[in-house]
Automatic annotation (TrEMBL):
<feature type="domain" description="TH1">
    <location>
        <begin position="853"/>
        <end position="1035"/>
    </location>
</feature>
<dbReference type="GO" id="GO:0007368">
    <property type="term" value="P:determination of left/right symmetry"/>
</dbReference>
<comment type="similarity">
    <text>Belongs to the TRAFAC class myosin-kinesin ATPase superfamily. Myosin family.</text>
</comment>
<dbReference type="GO" id="GO:0007015">
    <property type="term" value="P:actin filament organization"/>
</dbReference>
<dbReference type="GO" id="GO:0030048">
    <property type="term" value="P:actin filament-based movement"/>
</dbReference>
<dbReference type="InterPro" id="IPR036961">
    <property type="entry name" value="Kinesin_motor_dom_sf"/>
</dbReference>
<dbReference type="GO" id="GO:0005886">
    <property type="term" value="C:plasma membrane"/>
</dbReference>
<dbReference type="Pfam" id="PF00063">
    <property type="entry name" value="Myosin_head"/>
</dbReference>
<dbReference type="GO" id="GO:0007498">
    <property type="term" value="P:mesoderm development"/>
</dbReference>
<dbReference type="InterPro" id="IPR001609">
    <property type="entry name" value="Myosin_head_motor_dom-like"/>
</dbReference>
<feature type="domain" description="Myosin motor">
    <location>
        <begin position="12"/>
        <end position="699"/>
    </location>
</feature>
<dbReference type="GO" id="GO:0005524">
    <property type="term" value="F:ATP binding"/>
</dbReference>
<dbReference type="GO" id="GO:0048803">
    <property type="term" value="P:imaginal disc-derived male genitalia morphogenesis"/>
</dbReference>
<keyword id="KW-0067">ATP-binding</keyword>
<dbReference type="GO" id="GO:0005902">
    <property type="term" value="C:microvillus"/>
</dbReference>
<protein>
    <recommendedName>
        <fullName>Myosin-IB</fullName>
    </recommendedName>
</protein>
<dbReference type="Pfam" id="PF06017">
    <property type="entry name" value="Myosin_TH1"/>
</dbReference>
Length: 1035
């Protein structure tokens, strides 16, 4: 527990005794809330375990968790139901002290689940002995059977126990369960005939209808529709999503459990017959006959009821409509009215079910008894588990609530007495002065209810048994008269205050319980207490062919015994007093269960609802009693073992008496004289602050101590390892030296062989490959490839290549070719679309002019462009192009010189190649001189020399153009390439190798162009003396 104190700000304290303000219920509930939101549902109040229902599965009940709490001191681990179970189990086995675990709380607070966890722990902790495995299985399988017949869905809990259960588990001398015994208390019989809105009857009815097969339902004359049966249609009949209400599957579980309990198949069938007969009984209705007497409507239900139980039909009708009274030996039969018949029907249903439930508990007890088990009176090897209803306060509280709250008053009385007794015994045992503790003694309330002749129970029995017209109101009047002066009894009267008159109605009384004031409505008190079952009904049941019913309604009950049976509340009081004797003879452990909210949802903590339960469970009273003395106590050994590091005198091992060591620590921490007491075997600390200060000091010291322990331990481990290694190394070294020497000798021999082999390979390196030089040649190739990788040309224009060795020449040629291709491809991949188009022009020019035109090489270094017009003509040419008369896209434009066809006089012109036409513009006036459609031009003629002469052939039919055009174009190769691109006709270019060729003139005449190769670096074009056009081409 101490290890959790350090986290108290986040997860609260695990023992409420350590709360600083232990008198405040707000502080107590806030601590529960803080732990609840951290998924910590268990908290201690000393030895008392408080459990908050999480409404979800938590991973804290595994086999590993059981082992964590197995054979550990109670406060050694965090609070848990397993810790409480283990503590009780060990005290039972090791110290031979009978134990009981009392579980209480509201409906839906988790009582049944905690009782299951106790059985789970006991089954696991007692080991797996084959001879008693069946006993443990039977103990575990009692739950589904009793839940089916005794649990129901309420507005507060989908699996609410509607009865109290006490189970004794017997153990043999080895600590193994070998039998058990179950006592049941106050089954809620009224639920058979009536349920509140959104509630259900007992589970077994729905399980039978949902899980029974068609053959079984047909045999029992049942249908699956819940709404067809009066006793279960008044509440919630809608299918539920809760896994606990999976009726069809749970029916299979119940039937399997019956087989485990070893209930014979015949008795199982008869048990289901009785369940079905109760459903049919609820559907029997009555009418009014002659003289207002009741008559039975002969519907399907009454026949089914009679057939299933094997009772004569007429006898069924008679017992439900008549009443026979034994008047001093004379039997007098009188008819019932309609309301009395309904009362008789419901009384029979309640009696049948209640007696069957008692029979079922008795049958289970017979099954879980073994030849070796003994009764709880003769042995101390008994562990009792009490799962009983908690204090109940509803809007309307009736007879059942009075019984339940009376039971809780008795348990609270026992709880306080045993707690004080336990505290006092421990103080006296340890030699600590005992200071009497003031507390509210609820004996006055218990006496108010159960005291002979004057208590509420006696008055109720007296009213039920007296002759005359006794009613619930006459019972209330009698209580008001007899108990008027009692300080814990409040009623409405003319002399009461206005507050009481408004609070308590005329048909109500109020009791001041230990947990608070509760109003009770007396409506139905007498009927429920009398629990009257007419003789005719008993007689009819005793005639049944169902062996269970025949056993439960013996004929001796109405033939031999004329003594009126005890009333229901007297029976309950007697069984409760018997339970108190049983519990008082055992050493108790307590589990107080709390429901955090009414919605049954996880992570929802209703502060006021929990406050209500804390009050009714008496937890603050328990905490106050526990804190009246010392908040914390531990054995000297346990305290010294945990906190010995806080003093140099006790660390690391204290050789003296543990009591002296604890005293040293107390002095070291400056405990005040009133802060603690030294008992015989334990140290007692009065205030939580003192313990918190001690734990905080321990947490601060822990890291320092841990580092010292680690260092010492690591040093010891390393020293041990060093000595082991040193011994191993010495032995290993002698072997290693020999192995290394032999290895070095082998390595030297191998090295000599490799050197000799290498030298021979070097000598023959230029010869054909052989065994000796193969590796050397491979090495030469590798070295050449490495050198090659470092000197590869980076441009495809660079054709340099390292000279290879003789063995690499062939590979070198392949690699050179592949590398150049790679460089070319890389260059091409990097080209932009514009540059690629320019290359395409160059390629086109190469295909036409390479080897055909001498001036072609000079055009290679320059990129082709589509505008060669000199700058001072640009503006006028752009204006001409934009004019409406132009109307074409410009492909190419350049300045050029035109030679007249007569006299060959040069004139400056501008040549424009459009996408459709050829334009020739006057360079002075910028007027159009020629416009010829490109597709009308058959060809253009060039010389093979290095001149720029361009002869444009004009068809003779175009007379207005006056013959062929003779042009001197500066960039002749570029111009012709663009011309080819514009016409998409490579054949339009005609390159002549003749020294002379003719051109057309006007009127069908022709001229001659004479070409000569000059010596100058420029081309000249003049008129020769012969009258021809002389072109002297550049060298």
């Amino acid at each position: 527990m101490e290890r959790e104190i350090y986290d108290r700000d986040r997860a609260g304290v695990s023992d409420a005794v350590l709360l600083e303000d232990y008198t405040s219920d707000d502080v107590f509930i806030a601590n529960l809330q803080k732990r609840f939101h951290e998924n910590i549902i268990y908290t201690y109040i000393g030895q008392v375990l408080v459990s908050v229902n999480p409404y979800k599965e938590l991973p804290i009940y595994s086999e590993q968790d059981i082992q964590t709490y197995r054979k550990k001191y109670f406060f050694e681990n965090p609070p848990h139901v397993f810790a409480t179970s283990d503590n009780a189990f060990r005290l039972l086995i090791e110290e031979n002290r009978s134990q009981c675990i009392l579980i209480s709380g509201e409906s839906g607070s988790g009582k049944t689940e905690n009782s299951k966890k106790i059985l789970q722990y006991i089954a696991a902790a007692s080991g797996h002995v084959e001879s008693v495995e069946s006993v443990k299985d039977k103990l575990l399988q009692t739950n589904p059977i009793l839940e089916a017949f005794g649990n129901a869905k309420t507005n507060r809990n989908n699996n609410s126990s509607r009865f109290g259960k006490y189970m004794d588990i017997n153990f043999n001398w080895q600590g193994v369960p070998d039998g058990g015994d179950i006592l049941n208390y106050l089954l809620e019989k009224s639920r058979i005939v009536h349920q509140n809105a959104n509630e259900r009857n007992f589970h077994i009815f729905y399980q039978l209808l949902s899980g029974g097969d068609e053959q079984l339902l047909e045999k029992l004359h049942l249908k699956r529709n819940f709404a067809d049966y009066s006793y279960i249609s008044g509440g919630d009949i809608l299918p539920s999503t809760d896994k606990n209400l999976d009726d069809a599957n749970n029916f299979k579980v119940v039937m399997n459990a019956m087989n485990t309990i070893e209930i014979p198949k015949e008795e199982q069938d008869e048990l289901l017959d009785i369940v079905a007969s109760v459903l049919h009984l609820g559907n029997i209705t009555f009418g009014v006959g002659e003289k207002g007497h009741s008559t039975v409507y002969e519907n399907e239900a009454v026949h089914a009821f009679a057939n299933i139980l094997g009772i004569e039909f007429d006898q069924v009708k008679k017992c439900l409509t008549h009443r026979t009274i034994d008047a001093h030996g004379d039997l007098v039969t009188s008819p019932l009215n309609r309301d009395q018949s309904f009362y008789a029907r419901d009384a029979l249903a309640k009696a049948m079910y209640a007696r069957v439930f008692d029979w079922l508990v008795e049958t289970i007890n017979k099954s879980i008894h073994t030849p070796t088990s003994t009764s709880r009176v003769k042995t101390n090897h008994v562990l009792g588990v009490l799962d009983i209803y908690g204090f109940e306060v509803f809007e309307t509280n009736t007879y059942e609530q009075l019984c339940i709250n009376f039971c809780n008053e008795k348990l609270q009385q026992l709880f306080i007495e045993l707690t004080l007794k336990q505290e006092q015994e421990e103080y006296l045992k340890e030699g600590i002065e005992w200071t009497p503790v003031e507390y509210f003694n609820n004996k006055i309330i218990c006496d108010l209810i159960e005291e002979k002749h004057v208590g509420i129970i006696s008055l109720l029995d007296e009213e039920c048994l007296r002759p005359g017209d006794a009613t619930d109101l006459t019972f209330l009047e009698k209580m008001n008269e007899r108990l008027a002066s009692h300080p814990h009894y409040i009623f409405n009267s003319s002399r009461a205050s206005l507050v009481i008159q408004k609070l308590v109605h005329r048909d109500e009384f109020q009791l001041r319980h230990y947990a608070g004031d509760v109003k009770y409505n007396v409506d139905g008190f007498l009927d429920k207490n009398s629990d009257l079952l007419f003789r005719d009904l008993k007689e009819a049941m005793s005639a049944s062919k169902n062996s269970i019913i025949k056993l439960l309604f013996p004929s001796s009950e109405f033939l031999l015994s004329r003594k009126r049976p005890d009333t229901a509340i007297t029976q309950f009081k007697n069984s409760l007093n018997n339970l108190m004797q049983i519990l008082a003879s055992k050493e108790p452990s307590y589990i107080r269960c709390i429901k955090p909210n009414q919605l049954q949802t996880s992570d929802n903590f209703d502060f006021e609802l929990v406050r209500h339960q804390v009050k009714y469970l008496g937890l603050m009273e328990n905490l106050r009693v526990r804190r009246a003395g010392f908040a914390y106590r531990r054995t000297y050994d346990a305290f010294l073992e945990r906190y010995k590091c806080l003093s140099k005198q006790t660390w690391p091992n204290f050789k003296g008496n543990p009591r002296d060591g604890v005293q040293i620590i107390a002095n070291e921490l400056n405990y005040g004289a009133d802060d603690y007491r030294m008992g015989k075997t334990k140290v007692f600390i009065r205030l939580p602050q003192t313990l918190f200060m001690t734990e905080d000091a321990f947490q601060l010291k822990k890291n320092y101590v841990a580092s010292i322990i680690q260092a010492r331990w690591k040093g010891k481990i390393q020293r041990r390892k060093y000595l082991e290694l040193r011994e191993s190394v010495i032995i290993t070294q002698s072997y290693c030296r020999r192995v290394l020497a032999k290895r070095r000798l082998a390595e030297r021999k191998g090295a000599v062989e490799r050197i000799r082999f290498f030298i021979k390979g070097f000598i023959t390196r230029n010869q054909a490959p052989n065994e000796c030089n193969a590796k050397f040649i491979q090495l030469v190739k590798q070295m050449w490839l490495i050198r090659l990788s470092k000197s590869l040309p980076n441009s495809f224009m660079n054709h340099s290549w390292p000279k290879p060795s003789a063995h690499c020449e062939e590979a070198s040629e392949h690699l050179k070719k592949m590398h150049l291709l790679y460089l070319a491809k890389r260059y091409r991949d990097r080209l932009t679309p514009e540059r690629k188009a320019a290359f395409d022009m160059k390629v086109l020019a190469e295909s036409v002019f390479k080897g055909a035109k001498r001036s072609y090489p000079k055009s290679i270094p320059h990129w082709f462009i589509n505008d060669r017009v000199v700058d001072h003509h640009q503006a006028q040419i752009k204006s001409f192009i934009k004019s409406p008369t132009f109307g074409e896209r410009v492909i190419y434009q350049t300045s050029c010189m035109k030679y007249d066809r007569r006299g060959y006089k040069p004139r400056e012109r501008i040549l424009i190649i459009g996408d459709k036409s050829l334009f020739l513009i006057d360079a002075k006036t910028y007027k159009q001189k020629h416009r010829i459609s490109l597709n009308k031009i058959p060809n253009i003629v060039l010389t093979k020399e290095g001149d720029n002469l361009l002869l444009v052939r004009i068809p003779l039919e175009l007379k207005k153009d006056k013959g062929d055009l003779i042009l001197d174009v500066p960039y002749i190769i570029e111009c012709c390439t663009w011309w080819i691109k514009a016409t998409n006709n490579i054949n339009i270019i005609q390159i002549t190798d003749s020294a002379t060729f003719s051109h057309n003139m006007t009127s069908g005449k022709s001229g001659v162009i004479q070409v000569e190769l000059g010596t100058a670096s420029i081309t000249t074009i003049t008129k020769a003396k012969s009258g021809n056009l002389l072109v002297i081409a550049a060298q």
